[in-house]
Design a protein that fits this description.
The structure holds two protein chains of two kinds.
Chain A: H1 4-34, H2 41-59, H3 63-86, H4 95-99, H5 101-126, E1 142-145, E2 148-151, H6 152-174, H7 176-186, H8 188-193, H9 198-224, H10 233-245, H11 251-271, H12 278-291
Antiparallel strand pairs in A: 1-2
Helix pairs in contact in A: 1-6, 1-7, 1-9, 1-10, 1-11, 2-3, 2-9, 2-10, 3-5, 3-9, 6-7, 6-9, 7-9, 10-11, 10-12, 11-12
Chain B: E1 2-13, E2 16-27, E3 31-35, H1 42-49, E4 57-62, E5 65-66, H2 72-77, E6 80-83, H3 95-103, H4 111-117, H5 119-122, H6 134-146, E7 152-156, H7 164-179, E8 183-188, H8 191-197, E9 200-205, E10 208-214, H9 215-220, H10 222-228
The structure holds adenosine-5'-triphosphate and magnesium ion.
Magnesium ion binds near residues 42, 43, 85 and 156 of chain B.
Chain lengths: ~300, ~240
Amino acid sequence: MIDPYYLQQLAIGLSLGMTYALMAIGFTLIFGVLNVVNFAHGEVYTIGAFAGLVAITAFAPPFLAVLFLALAAGAAAGFSLERIAFRPFRRFTDEASLKSRAMRESTLLSSLAVSIVVREALEIVFGSEMQPLPFEYMINAPVQAGPVTLATGDLIIFGVAAAMLAGLQYMLKRTRIGLSIRAVSNNPLGARYVGINTDRTIVMTFVVGSTMGAAAGILVGLYYGAIFPAMGFIPGVKAFVAMVMGGLSSIPGAVISALILGVSESMATTFLASGWADMVAYGFLILTLVFFPSGLFGAGRERV
Amino acid sequence: MSLLSIRDLCVAMGPQEILRGVSLDVPDGSIVAVLGSNGVGKTTLMRTISGIYRGRQGSISFAGQPILNLPAHRIVALGLCQAPEGRQIFSNMSVRENLVLGAGDAGPGELDRIYTLFPVLAERLRQNAGSLSGGEQQMLCIARALMRRPRLLLLDEPSLGLAPKLVALIFDLVRRIRAEGVSILIVEQNARAALRIADHAAVMEDGRIVLAGKAAELRDDPRIAEAYLGGHVHG
Ligand SMILES: Nc1ncnc2c1ncn2[C@@H]1O[C@H](COP(=O)(O)OP(=O)(O)OP(=O)(O)O)[C@@H](O)[C@H]1O
Ligand SMILES: [Mg+2]
């Protein structure tokens, strides 16, 4: 008989892992179409949480409406981010620029710049502390599942994330825009030859990825009651690690890695002080980079 | 009437001039072949027509509409599709997904016609495009371009790297596609085969068209025979 405590940690780890997965998908999708890391992705998560918070304090809507507003804010953030930090650098389409590292590094820096500006702006408006949240919006009421005690948040996070992953899968396999996103990831030049509007596809990729990141932000915010301007940094790092572990541009790889990461962290709190749990992710990152440079699941899988 | 009409087209990559005043016409319903050795600018011409590269000077009109420097997706939407050099298929996606992507707004309605032209593809719809043989990939590339029901099909070296039997098959397909009313602009190093199916042909050298005319006449032109047909006039 397994100690219920471990089952509980497993369940908590899976829901934590799901939030990393939602974040990691944004990184992965964007890396797929553009081959660059979006450093502002953590701020999209923060924006999702703050959008929910503002809605709650302004007119106290039902939970689903809060979630929906957070997703809409994420979509808008993704759209603007692409316009501000990424598109301007795609003017340079000659061979030399496309191959140059300087071009890629400049989008990297422009997304980093956006992330700093967003965080500072939130600090000016809201202050850098944790924001007070009305109790009734928190999703941490205990739920008894057999011998295991969970929180409503664990179930909600798992459910919402699973639904979003299923929706994403459907979109990527069955819809025009999803096929276009995969086509641009697979062969950007080929995509232009078949008449795909690559600019529009890239914007849509940001919108989809950022919507999922914002969902993670509001869910985690309401679960832990911890909404503050710098909240996106640590999850951003974790999701980045999951993307690298998954092989940079594989969605299934990133999701599985994110779950492994979440469960490992949650189990590790049994043996380590919780402040050290973050070391787990860095440990995984180093092990991956040293022993599996093309990801835990090997290279050559489908991007996106 | 010319379906495609190119006038004094100049294309440069940085300081390097690659096309230096190319003029070329594709009459409606015809097959036009562009011949020339490596690096003379054939692919650059094809890419500029499709809106992948930008032209510096000159004009291109398609069905009476200026298309030079229009975004590539707008040109495709007008009914000008290309099976490009290097195939550029989506190797991680299924054959069917490649075809559906080729169809764009037109929807997958063309699939049945494609299956009759390319029966090998019909058997491999669920297979990853990257796992097809070279010949099958070339057929997929052409089929993908046909999914939109284009009025003009550009083919950039469709026979490259294929065994002689497959080359014959591809050229036969090109003839059948034209018989269905699609005009064709084809770039080929296999000059003999290209001149056999083409109505008109042009020879490129160093970014210019140096010789153009009816394919039947070029076939007998000693300069062509010398440079591109291995010295024999008739093949
Ligand atoms: N994107 C580019 N950047 C810089 N130079 C280019 C680019 N594309 C083509 N070139 C140069 O333009 C010239 C013509 O190339 P192009 O590919 O058009 O030749 P081609 O006639 O198609 O040759 P091949 O028969 O080998 O396919 C070459 O010297 C090539 O190096
Ligand atoms: Mg070429």
